[in-house]
Amino acid sequence: MKKRVPPSFVAVRQGQPGAGKGKALSAVDSELELVHKLVPAAANCTTISGDAATRAGALQALEENTWVHLACHGKQDPAQPYNSHFVMRGELLTLLDIMDTDILHTEFAFLSACHTTVGDEKTPDEVIHLAAGLQFSGFKSIVGTLWEVDDAVAKHDVKVFYENMFMDLKDGAVMDCTKAAWALNRATHAVKTEVPLEQRMVFIHIGV
């Protein structure tokens, strides 16, 4: 077990990646507003967005925080898995970038981006994808996606997920990343009247 450090939560959003890097994600701003409201004050939640949500800015956020929420475009590269990436402003944040970074005291990551847990079709037991890269780098618990995410409805899953993650968290209580699988299960059932089935099934949990 790593030494426990005070929690710190960062939300990174990049809804306007620039020309040629994917369509604008109009709902990520409202998604992160919900996240910011639900994160306990003790976690000192910060947000990185717009021009600050660059490759360097996102890597720094991963290095300096124990809990991370990423809302952006994601892409799996089946030919060169280490080139799988998150789309930031100006440059791509690749899986190799993440694995080359000295990330310490990490706890949890929510990857609200497309294709973050997609493995290779021919060798499914040899998985190299974005969520696995974060796990290899030290994140204990991760929520990722199996296919394309509709950002307009994903915020419903995100809201209920964090409501359950931080439910009954009293003063002095520790944020517990091991509740993630349970919280995701609760969220999947809770939003079934608001979110289409394929957008409830898209999120999966790996880790503890």
UniProtKB/TrEMBL annotation:
It holds the Pfam family CHAT. Residues 24-166 form the CHAT domain. InterPro entries: CHAT_dom. This is CHAT domain-containing protein.
